[in-house]
């Protein structure tokens, strides 16, 4: 989709025409001849810089490719009869203004030479109020035009693109997995200090401080500290794991042979509970009642109930789990008849014994995800690559997967190199 295809309606054109009244298209008859002032732009003024680019292109600004290194795009035209450009660079947004004035250079700052022109270094605009006003007015007008373009031109496009699956999701695998790893390490350290006596003592001291005590004092109730704090880590670890799981299951959608954005819109998939995400993404594998997908799902369901749901629902669990029923014998657990596993201890935590069980479950799920039907998807996801959902990309991924692991790895490497180049502004 070309940026010039974004055409405002008549009323929006009128509004933009008023805002950009002092802007004019690039004039080939009046090329840049003098030096170039480079001024940084506040990033917060343009949360989506591409909207500014779209508005300027509508006003007649043209792409100026090849003028700078480390630049995603640069568009140029005229403002108040002065050559001016707006660019997105590795070092932020920049306004470039043609000038032959000798201003005070700022020390150790980069400069960008237009073709065939000796450019000035970035300067301190305070030494020329008129030029400072021109840059400020240009930036203000572009910001207003970008806001209009976003609210009045892109709204309908955004909705239709989402419905068609023409979106990309930022891969947050590393961040979400990091939270799980952190709480898992903390819980294990509380249990055994990872074999290091100093670490173990340090963790005990942290537990005492967290309870409002002083590690220098003797605490006869010290045996209660670790189980309680391991329980905190267990709940946090389980919550973090399921958060990560929901994220990667959505990221895996484009790699499945059956996902259809009409049948299952991205927004619907994101909003589904983890169990529905699992059933849909692994639909074919879940059809086997005794298959690995179903067995792993059952493990996760039990883990969610045992390690996460009690505290995830306000500490009450589900149904009668937290209720004490009044009886002739006193207040007794409502689920007493279901056995000890149905009753959660609220005074002395069982976490030290259940923590390893939770780790075993999550390790088993990890193994299934990395070696089962989603193994190719996880190579991509754990590689940290962003995930595109549009039809062309889905077809490309499915073809590579069908050709075997070697062909798919070539695709992963190709896109990893492309992302590195984009991140480094090597266009």
Number of helices: 14
What share of the residues does DSSP label as strand, in percent? 5-15%
- Quick one: how many beta strands? 10
Radius of gyration from the CA trace?
30 Å
The quaternary organization reads as: single chain
- What's the pLDDT, averaged over the residues? 84
Task: Give a quick set of tags describing it.
about 425 residues; alpha+beta; 6-stranded antiparallel beta sheet; two-stranded antiparallel ribbon; 14 helices; 10 strands; about 50% helix; about 10% strand
Please outline what is shown here.
Strands 1, 2, 3, 4, 5 and 6 form a six-stranded antiparallel beta sheet that branches. The protein has a two-stranded antiparallel ribbon with strand order 7-10. By secondary structure, the protein is an alpha+beta fold. The protein has two domains: 3-164, no CATH class; 171-311 and 351-423, no CATH class.
What does the model show?
The chain is α+β, with helices and mostly antiparallel strands and 427 residues long. It folds into two domains: 3-164, no CATH class; 171-311 and 351-423, no CATH class. It has helices at 10-19, 49-58, 129-164, 173-192, 197-210, 222-251, 266-271, 274-281, 283-286, 292-312, 351-371, 375-382, 391-403, 405-423; strands at residues 23-24, 35-40, 62-63, 71-79, 82-89, 92-99, 168-169, 324-327, 330-333, 387-388. Helix 6 (222-251) packs across helix 8. 29% of the residues are buried.
